[in-house]
Design goal:
alpha/beta, FAD/NAD(P)-binding domain, 19 strands, globular
Length: 633
């Protein structure tokens, strides 16, 4: 992600403009066995190696969904555990659901949150490393609050109730850091792919800036350079052979790569391969799956809004490219601090403090997450396998929840249940759902994504080479970004060149087959991720950074202090707007898969960002609010 990237088009991607017309893995050392009882020594954020969807978090779910396992041994029925609410999933949406339920029902409400991971927060993952007494914190998933002025009143109120004030980030984020240190966006061409290791200063986010100079430095064929430059300097005339009133429909339904071939005469495989990985984590698939209008919305080069929508194109472009809201609303651990604020508010004694600043370094006592005297309890390493009404759905007054913890099955009862987990799993957890609802939920396939955090003992090579971020089309990790320069709550951003810092490397496992529909790409990518070991990532990280930063004096064997691989085999929610999905084909909103899938079922309601078909934190919160409201309808 660029140092000055603006997240200003996400509402467009969510469809607003379109309205105009178990597999076993090798054992990985986790530092502490996840089967242990949670004690005061239990602290998941410090674990390195394979995190995210870590070993131990998904095997039971796979046995249920893939193998159809139904016998989990004797179930311990905890008759005394009857709750007002059980939330399945303790990510941002699950935590927000518990928060909203307490607001509606009162602080005496008994609530249990169950999560299959060894930490709470879901994709809002916190990575820590103690570097000789200096705590280094980084995000392992959900990284920032994008475009917060557009948040709903519900989300804004929740953040305010947590004591979060956005203006504080205007001081915390050092916006002059990159210019002051001579750091810029680059493209890294690697020797195995391009015949030479070369960093070229350039960013596709500003395609016409220094385009000719940058293209001439790229190790591409002369014909590929000509074609790439043609894309980077494209103007409003590119769709002149399409009628004015047909252009928006054309842009919505025509693949971006087909547009480049037909209207810009692009045919070089080198050019298509160079462009393919630009969307990265924003899309979860290759640019070959984008429509023309989506390509523009994601900032892909070669298309101007005036070409798609004559006369009003400039107005539309201005509406979605405003620079009013910079990308600075970011805790050192990303949105994990928001999850921590929620947990600290609901579970007294888990951590000291009461401000957005002190949450950053507040020590969390995980042994206090699940205590019998607490009205809100959070139970980790607990994979739910069944949620069933006690009696006919329309008359039932309770829901029985069965889950696995430490290889043993337990059952609790609740008056209400919010499923705030991956929506594709819900048909297996709630087998009595109507068949049509099950089919809709199974379509909400998340895109796989990996954030690999690499702690370096210094950043001399980064400064010498001038790298703020690098797009790396030939490597496994296609994006490398230096950590955000945030100083808040006692956590200081790196300043001296001798200080350690994080690099975040992003890997999106796109398909080797061009044009493969996103759902198929996601399945293929997820399978690939689940067969990769930590050692596979470690080897690649060292080779990649050694080649890219070596000319600046970097030695991966000496300068890398820690590697944490945040593997999200189920990453971003499946979003509205892809031309290969069912969303664009359907004009009746009530028939969209995420709308059908999230319908309440007796005393069970459904949250998570999946239910909003939108992979953003505020969507998770809004869907939690809707799910809780449905319980009181």
């Amino acid at each position: 992600m660029s140092k000055d990237q603006q997240i200003t088009r996400r509402d467009f991607l969510n469809g607003s403009l379109l309205t105009l017309g178990s597999m076993a893995l090798p054992p990985i050392a986790l530092g502490k066995a996840i089967e242990q009882l949670i004690t005061t020594d239990y602290y998941p954020p410090i674990l390195t190696g394979m995190r995210g969807s870590h070993p131990g978090s998904f095997e039971i779910a796979h046995q249920l969904a893939w193998s159809g396992q139904s016998d989990w041994g004797k179930v311990t029925d905890t008759q005394e555990e009857i709750y007002d609410l059980v939330v399945v999933g303790a990510g941002i949406s699950g935590l927000a659901a518990a928060w909203f339920f307490r607001q509606q029902f009162g602080e005496d409400a008994r609530i249990l949150l169950l999560d299959n991971h060894d930490d709470f927060g879901g994709h809002a993952k916190r990575n820590e490393f103690n570097d000789n007494g200096q705590l280094r914190i980084c995000y392992g998933g959900s990284q920032a609050m994008e475009n917060p002025s557009a948040y709903s009143v519900v989300t804004k109120d929740l953040l305010r109730d947590l004591g979060l004030y956005l203006e504080r980030f205007e001081e915390a984020y050092d916006e002059e850091f990159f210019d002051r240190n001579g750091l810029d966006d680059m493209i890294f061409f690697d020797k195995p792919t391009y015949g030479i290791n070369r960093l070229v200063p350039y960013s596709f986010e500003d395609p016409q800036r220094n385009a000719e100079e940058a293209v001439q430095q790229m190790p591409l064929s002369s014909e590929a350079k000509k074609q790439l430059l043609r894309i980077l300097t494209a103007n409003r005339e590119t769709l002149n052979n399409v009628g004015w009133f047909d252009r928006l429909e054309y842009a919505k339904t025509t693949p971006y790569f087909l547009y480049l071939k037909d209207h810009l005469n692009i045919h070089s495989p080198q050019v298509f391969e160079l462009l393919r990985y630009i969307p990265g984590g924003d899309l979860g698939a290759g640019a070959d799956t984008l429509s023309v209008v989506e390509a523009w919305a994601l900032g892909m080069p070669g298309i101007e809004p005036r070409a798609m929508i004559p006369l009003i194109g400039d107005l539309v472009a201005n509406a979605f490219s405003s620079d009013d809201e910079p990308y600075i609303y970011h805790f050192p651990d990303g949105n994990a601090s928001i999850a921590r604020l929620l947990v600290r508010k609901m579970i007294p004694g888990v951590a000291p403090g009461n401000t957005m600043e002190d949450i950053v370094l507040a020590p969390f006592d995980y042994s206090k997450l699940d205590q019998a005297h607490s009205n809100v309890r959070l139970r980790l390493n607990s994979t739910v396998i069944n949620a069933s009404h006690a009696g006919p759905v329309e008359k039932a007054r309770q829901v029985s929840i069965t889950y696995i913890n430490n290889n043993r099955a337990y059952r609790v009862r609740t008056k209400n249940c919010v499923m705030a987990c991956y929506n594709t799993m819900i048909p297996y957890l709630v087998p009595d759902l109507p068949q049509g609802q099950k089919q809709a939920l199974k379509k909400l396939i998340k895109s796989p994504l990996v954030y690999t955090n690499v702690l370096l003992d210094n950043w001399h090579a980064i400064q010498k080479l001038g790298v703020a971020s690098a797009y790396c089309p030939g490597r496994l990790h296609t994006d490398v970004t230096i950590d955000f320069p945030i100083t808040i709550g006692g956590h200081s951003a790196f300043k001296s060149l001798n200080e350690s810092t994080y690099l975040t490397m992003t890997y999106v496992p796109v398909s080797s087959t061009y044009g493969l529909p996103p759902r198929q790409q996601y399945r293929e990518g997820r399978t690939r991720l689940l067969t990769m070991s930590f050692e596979d990532f470690e080897t690649e990280v060292k080779a990649h950074l050694g080649a890219m930063l070596g000319p600046g004096g970097f030695d991966p064997e000496k300068n890398i202090k820690a590697i944490t691989v945040n593997r999200w085999s189920h990453g971003y929610a499946y979003s509205v707007g892809n031309p290969y999905s069912l969303y664009d084909r359907e004009t009746n909103e009530e028939k969209l898969p995420h709308i059908i899938g999230r319908q309440p079922f007796g005393r069970i309601t459904i949250a998570n960002s999946d239910a909003g078909a939108n992979a953003y934190m505020d969507e998770s919160i809004d869907q939690a609010w809707r799910a809780v409201k449905e319980l009181f309808a």
